[in-house]
Prior knowledge:
Chain B is of the alpha/beta class.
Amino acid sequence: MSTIEHEPVTADAGDGPGRHAGRSPSGGEGRRHVRNAIRRDLVFAGLAILIAVVAILPGRSGEGTSISTMQLIASMSAMIVAAVGLNLLVGYTRLVSLGQGGFYALGAYGSAYLALDKGWNPVLAIVGALTFCAVVGAVAAMATMRMRGPQFSVITLILAVLIERILNEGNAFGRLAGYPNFAQHDTTVMKPMTVFGVELLPPMIAGEVATVMVPIVIITAIVVILSRNIARSPWGASLSAIGESEMLASHLGVDVVRRKVAVFVLASVLGGLGGVIAVQAFGHLQPETFDIFLTITIVLAVVFGGSGTILGPVVGAIAIVWLEQSDALNSVSQWQQDTLSDAWFLSSHGLLGVLFILTLFLMPRGIVGSIGRLITARLRAREIDAADASGGLEHTDEELVPTAEPVDTTGALLALTGMSKNFGGLQAVAEMDLVVAPGQVHAIIGPNGAGKSTLANLVTGVYKPSAGTATLAGRDITGQPPHKVVRAGVGRTFQTPQLFHDATVRDNVLAGFPDTGRTPLWSAALKTPGRYRRDAEMRVEADRLMALVGLSDVADLRASELPYGKQRALEIARALAGQPELIVLDEPAAGLIATETAGLGDLLLSLRAQGYAMVVVEHHMDLVSRVADVVTCMDQGRLLARGTAAEVLADERVVAAYLGKPHETGTEGGH
Amino acid sequence: MSLVVDTIESGYDRAPILTGVSLRVDPGEMVAVVGSNGAGKSTLVRTISGLLAVRSGAITVDDVAITKLAPERRARRGVVMVPEGRKLFPQLTVGENIAMGRRAGRGRTSGEDPVDALLDTFTILRERWGQQASLLSGGEQQMVALVRAVAARPRYLLLDEPSLGLSPLKTLEVFQLIELVRERTGAGILLVEQMADQALAASDRAYVLEHGKVAMEGDAATLRASDEIRRAYLGVA
Amino acid sequence: MEPVIIGLVLGGLYALLAQSFVLTFITTRTLNFALGEFVALGAFATLAVASWGWLPDVGKVVVGVLVAGVVGAFVHRFLILPFTTQGEHDVRWLLSSVAVSFVLLDLITNVEGPSPQRSDTARVSGTVDLFGTGVSKQQLLLATLAVVISLLLILVTKRTPMGLVMRAVSQDPETASLMGVSPRRVGMGAYAAAMGLAGLAGVLYAATVGASPVMGEPLLVASIAVAIVGGLGSLWGPLLGGALYGVLSQFASYQWGTIWGETAGLLLVIAVLVWKPEGLLGRRTEVKL
């Protein structure tokens, strides 16, 4: 897999601000989190394996009557694996791929072709085919890197159609005769593979036990278990972050390009694995079974079951395969012909289409998603009543910990030199210098269009500067992409809060930890003991951060249910989770009323007391004069004035270009 | 003859945000709605303009019920909204944006065109006439949004957070423009504003929204002077 | 020269259908993946009235266009529009239009049977000589129509108040509704026009290959590819995309065989998208924070 990252999960030397608190998986609470998590995971894994084994019990004697059941189970397994893979793309990353059927076909034909025509060891052939899927997936991911929405869907559909055409028309694959076929291979059925001396027989011959069913269901169960681990890990959170907004994800320290390639590759390999299972169970391939309909059916399975849920694709795949293979749809079709019309009726494909539309209307979250919503809605109805959701941003200073070490303000934490940015002919920022000392609050004010936000975006790497350099604690960060700037110790909040609206407040904060960008895929999937400890540690620390910004009582509400002021506080808590030394706040008081702005001021002052340095882009002069050590006023991309708040706000040029009238400082809360 | 909102309930998904709000705007008067975040201010204007459905209660314009009308039909009856964040059509020019506003005003074009008067005062918009709207600064965008709404010949104008994200100077200018709009069009203006102090200073009457209900109402100057308001919304201890 | 001429003419059919994708995209930000079935629908509707002697051929073609257009408007109103309410990430409409494609295809197959039926309406037989290449008049008609209709659409959107409304709705339907415009009606109108176009293409295409339920399927992928190459946001796009796609795929199949024709066309799409995700003539929209 391509996202092996070697950096340690926890941050290095704890010399920065905020890095001293909540580090140890503190005592009882942490251990309780670990114990609960292990118990839940074991129960899930046990149940998954148990269901898998029970499913194939009817075939243990190899009776002829069990063959069709075993074939049904095998089809379901293939569909489950492919759908689980697709769910990572569609459900979490919100990239609606219509190409999964193509990878399914590649896995099926590839493994068969390598084993039969190339004479590879069957296990190697499978590995080879899956590797090929991974490569095609990686190339497709890179080709579609800048696309979203319908464009992405169309290109993946085109990919699936291309693959289908090639398999359909390629002479090596026997075309309509199928693969294998008499003309080329003297047989129409693949030879069963042998692993460790055990022959894995497909469910085809009465009287023989279909041994291949054992690895099929076990592998399926393992895929489901591992995908659950991934979905619930920081790695999974990074996928949701990309699905929400790639800009946001990169500001959580996620290398969006690599992560998108990784998830596409993972989905492709699972798609291919589905195809491999189909070959092993049925021993023969027909090109027409890999048409557009297959690729859409996999999407249907995900959406019908519940995209973005762990069990959704499993339930959906089982339901769809059962519908397709049982007589249910045929009998509905027959009923229509009997009672309605001989000509105007729908058969199975049309009925699946109707089912698809009904799902979208009635259960947009799918079976699992809708049931889940019902249950949580009941549970949470009381909590919403309990928590006063209408309040704003009110800071509580109970948690205000005075800084342990005196802040060293001599060296520059952030230094911008000669920063310039042109958009086409427009010079948004021109030769700006800016120095922020550790623990210092630096406010940037100026008229709309003066380049303040552009400057903030230059700091966090959203834009590459046209000229100039940026250093953070002496390290050059000029032109680095956001995830690298964030990893170097810069946190960020946005003009309009960028949150995971459907996730809880706690999960939003958890997504802010560096783990979201740094957890390697293997560790997310296998869930090592270290992962359990770290998860517990993060929960404890998240609780502390929520208390710090006054969100403890709404920790389990969804972010979208918070009033605007608390959404701002949540964004700050999430930024703090990334253990930054510098926080860039882009108009944090926009949309806040005066009392909330005052609360925000308290919070920023307490953060400064804890040693965080800040760059605050702001229009509210009350807030600026209260929190800022240094104020920079920009106009038309250039420096207009710099100094203390009092100096800058009294500057004639600032009044003329920006304030319109002198700012009343010191009077009772003027505006 | 006025815009009357009678005990309406509305909101998103399941949870209602407004629980029985009543208010009235008369032609030519400026009415402010202030309140903390989450009190339902934006929900209120979105409900009056028709972007959100009313669950119960009624909205009438000059004694004609508009409660069930789609937003476009309310606009054609002269209930015009300037949405939060200006919402100009980004790839249309300034002129085309204003032309879009005129569509809602078709059929109610008697009298002199108030747009010309505004453009004569704020000449910068004439200079920008052929420019793509997305290239304007925030202050200019807010001006275009206001002029676009005036082009729709409003009888009642709903302004959602006109000062949001604007510098102090631009905020002053925008409030001047709003005052000019009131003079020129004679429309009743409902002003939802985060900057409670400025909003109250500019208005004749005001409503204070709390938890989806009207907590206080009355003369804007009186409210602005009341201790309770000063403590809760103006940030004065 | 021959593959170029043939390719350009063939590209006309794709361009006509691509125009239908562009039309719905610039007004509603949606694409109808059931387009192929609307091609068949138009063809079969015309076929159904083919025996009405009193109706001139033009009238029969109009019937095909109208049926496809009206069904298209309803599909938008009831099966596309309800699934576009969750912002720009919302792609439920895409899934629902795929589902519509399944239902229509199945229904047409059950009613009309799977095999192609001869359709004589709007058939123009014979060939013309174009720079030394024999081109079927039927295909030339399609290509000419594609150009004429594209130019008309461009004229309408650039020069008329209706065009201004269309552009406004495409950029922000909610705000357009505040300007007294009904985005729902604009969307239904765009779908009616777009699916009418698909029906027209179906009638003309059926005259050469016969009417069958699956006749639109191979056209779907090609025309969506053409629309994307040109840029989904540009009405000029289909003409450029159609020409490129047609010539390239013709050239490739002359050189290396039929299967490479389509493959080359689809590879062109991938290449263009990697280079310019918004398409050759599409406009890039900046993401603002």
